[in-house]
Amino acid sequence: xxxxxxxxxxxxxxxxxxxxxxxxxxxxxxxxxxxxxxxxxxxxxxxxxxxxxxxxxxxxxxxxxxxxxxxxxxxxxxxxxxxxxxxxxxxxxxxxxxxxxxxxxxxxxxxxxxxxxxxxxxxxxxxxxxxxxxxxxxxxxxxxxxxxxxxxxxxxxxxxxxxxxxxxxxxxxxxxxxxxxxxxxxxxxxxxxxxxxxxxxxxxxxxxxxxxxxxxxxxxxxxxxxxxxxxxxxxxxxxxxxxxxxxxxxxxxxxxxxxxxxxxxxxxxxxxxxxxxxxxxxxxxxxxxxxxxxxxxxxxxxxxxxxxxxxxxxxxxxxxxxxxxxxxxxxxxxxxxxxxxxxxxxxxxx
Length: 350
Hints:
Blueprint: H1 6-22, H2 25-28, H3 31-53, H4 59-76, H5 85-89, H6 91-119, H7 127-138, H8 142-160, E1 174-175, H9 183-205, H10 210-236, E2 239-241, E3 245-248, E4 256-259, E5 263-268, E6 279-281, E7 293-297, E8 303-304, E9 310-311, E10 315-318, H11 323-335
Parallel strand pairs: 6-10
Antiparallel strand pairs: 1-2, 2-3, 3-4, 5-7, 7-10, 8-9
C-alpha cells in the first residue's frame, strides 16, 4: 500500500516541510526568502513530482495535485510583499482558465470515447464499462476513481446518450429490467417532486438567505441529473446470458459478472427481505423498487456499488422482465457441462 503511493507521500512530506519552514519569522520578514519558499511549494516541487512520476501517473493526477497546491498556497504563505501576490490577485481568471481547460479535455474525452465505442464491437462491454474502466485506470485512488466514474457516467447518460448501439440491441439472450417493474413511474415521480421542491424552496428562501437558496438549488439539480442519468442507464443497459456466465448491468451500478459455476441456486423471489451485509439488491432506491429474482452464491463476492461503496454479499436480488424465460435460460446453462476456454465466451445463440 505504501509502496503504491510512495511518490505522493514523499511529495506531501516535502510540501509540509517547506510550509513549516516558511512560518519562521526569518522567512516571513524577508520578501525574497518568502517568495523563494512560495516558488518551491507552488512550482518546483509539483514539477519535480511530475518529472519523476510522469511514466507512472496520469495527466489527471498531476493536474489534480497542481490545482490542489495552487488553491492552498495563499492560505499558507503571506502574499503581502510576496512576488506571487500579483499572480494570486488574478486567481479568479486562473480558475476560469483551468475550468475551460477541463471542459476542453472533457470534449476531447467524449470525442475519443465515441470513436472507441464505434471501433469496439464487444457484447460484454458497453459505454458504462468503457468509461468506468478508463477513469479508474486514469485515477490513482481507487475509491475516488469509482466515485468520479459514477458522476461522469451519470452526466453521460443524462445529457449525451440518446440511442442504443447497434451491438447492444435486445436479443433472446439479453434481458431488460424496466418494462414491467414500474421503476420509470417511480423515478419520474421523484423527479417531479424534486423539481417542485426546488422551485418552492428557492422562492421561499431567496429573499431571506440567497446563499442557502442557491446551495439547495444546486443540490436539487445534482439529484435530478443523477436520477435522470440512472434511469436512462437502466433503459440502455441490459443483462446478458452468455455461454459460461451472466453479466448483470443495472443503471449506474458497476457491471457484475457471475460465472455459472459460482451460483448455488437461482429462483423467482418477490418476497420481503432484511438488510444485511450478506445481501445486495440491484436497486438504487432499495425497497421502493421491486425484485423478482434471487441468486444464492457459493461464496461471498465483492460487488461495487455507487459512490465508491462496496459489499461482499452471498445473495443478490434484482428485477428481470420475462423472468420465466430468464430463469429457464440460466438454469439451462448451469446444467450444461461448462467449457472453461475463455475464447468460447459468446452469445448462447451463436
